[in-house]
Amino acid sequence: MPRISIVLPTYNGARYIRECIDSCLSQTFRDIELIVVVDGSTDNTEEILKAYDDRRMKVIKTMNQGQAPAMNTGFAVASGEYWSWTSDDNIYVPDAFEVMARYLDAHPEAAAVATDCLIIDENGKIVGYEEYPWQCFLYRAEMGRKVGPHRPEARIIEDIDFFLRFRHLGGPVMRISAPYYHYRVHSNAVTPTRAAERPLISLKLTYDLASRGIVEVDLRELFLNRMSQASLYKNYQAIDQMIAFAREVGVPFVELLERRRRFLESPIGWGINRLHIAGLSQVGKLGRKMRLWRYRAKKLLSTNETPI
Question: Distance between CA atoms of 255 and 136, rounded to whole angstroms?
Fold first, then answer.
C-alpha cells in the first residue's frame, strides 16, 4: 500500500499535463500512487498518458462530469495513508511530498499541512509568491473520509469548499512557510463564463456553511461583496438570484440589496465598482510581487546563489 495517494483530475489538459505528471512521478518521496482521472477529455490527453510506463500511475477514464465527481472517482480507489490532489497545469517541487509527509509524521496532532507556492505564467515564468493554503497540501486519508466527498454544487470553488469543511470537521491545517509548488495562472484556467458564475455559487455555499456553524461571516457583507463581483461581469441575472435567495432565507437587509442592485446596474455605479475591484486586484498583485522579491532576497542571502 502506498503511503501517499495523489489524485489528478483532467479535462482537455494536454498542454501542461506532462509537466504535472513528471513533477509527481519524479518526487524524492517514491512511495506514492498517482491516480489520473480523465474526465471525458476530447484532446490528445490519452495519447500522452500512454507514453508513461510507471506502475505507480493509474488511469481512470470517465464521461465528462466535472471536477468534483472526477476527484471523488479518484479517491474512491485511493489506498494511501496521506492524500492530496492537483490540477493538470501545476507543478510540484521535487521534494514537496517528502517535506510534507515528514511534517505529518512528526506532528500527529495535525490533520493536514500546506505550503506556500510560486505563481507562474503560461510559459512557466515565475511572476509572484503566494501563501496559498489550498494549493500544495497533504492530509490524512482518515480525515478526508470524515469530511466527506467533494460537492458537485461547489463547482469552480471545490477546493475552498472542501477545506472550509475540513478545518471544521477534520482538524487543524498547519503551514510550511516555503514554496513547494508552482501554481500556474493563464487565460484558459477559468473562462469568463465560469468566472461569472462564481459569485452566486460562492454566496450560496458560504451561506450554507455559515448556517451550519462551519464558518463565521458577516452575512450583510457577504451578500454585498458577491453582488459586487457579479456586477463586474454585468451578470445582473445572478444578482437577481442573490436577492431572491436573500428573500428565501429571510435575511433582514433585502431592501439594501435591492438599492445596491439599482446602483450597480447604473453606468456610474458599474464604473465605480469596477474601479474598486481593479484597485483591490492591483494591491493583490503588488503583494505577490513583494513577497517574491523578499523570497528571492532571502534565498540569495542564505545560499549566495543566483535567485530563481
Answer: 42
pLDDT in tens, 84-105: 999 999 999 999 999 999 999 9
Angle (nearest 5°) at CA 163 between 223 and 210: 35
Q: Where are the domains of the chain?
A: 4-184, 192-265
Residues near 86 by beta carbon (within 8 Å), at least 6 away in sequence: 6, 7, 8, 20, 24, 92
How many CB atoms sit inside 10 A of residue 248's CB?
8
Query: Got the DSSP string for 65-91?
Result: --HHHHHHHHHTS---SEEEE--TT-E
pLDDT tens track for 259-277: 999 999 999 999 999 999 9
Inform me whether the pLDDT recorded for 214 exceeds 60. Answer: yes
The CA-based dihedral angle spanning residues 277, 283, 284, 286, taken in that order and rounded to the nearest 10 degrees: 150
What does residue 129 show for φ and ψ, rounded to 5 degrees?
-130, 130
Task: Tell me the β-bridge partners of 54.
Answer: none
> CA-CA distance, 136 to 72, in Å (whole number)?
19
166 pLDDT exceeds 70?
yes
CA trace torsion 87, 92, 96, 97 (10° rounding): 50
Which CATH number, 1.10.10.10, 3.90.550.10, 3.40.50.720, 1.10.3720.10, labels domain 4-184? Answer: 3.90.550.10
Helix 267-303 crosses helix 254-265 at what angle (to 10 degrees)?
90
Residues 6 or more apart whose CB falls under 8 angstroms from that of 217 comprise: 206, 210
Listed residue (240, 233, 296) closest to 270, CA to CA: 233
Backbone φ and ψ for 45, nearest 5 degrees, come out as -55, -45
pTM of the model: 0.89
Instruction: Name the H helices within the chain.
Output: 17-25, 45-50, 67-75, 96-106, 141-147, 158-169, 192-211, 219-232, 236-249, 254-265, 267-303
| Gap between the terminal Cα atoms of the chain | 37
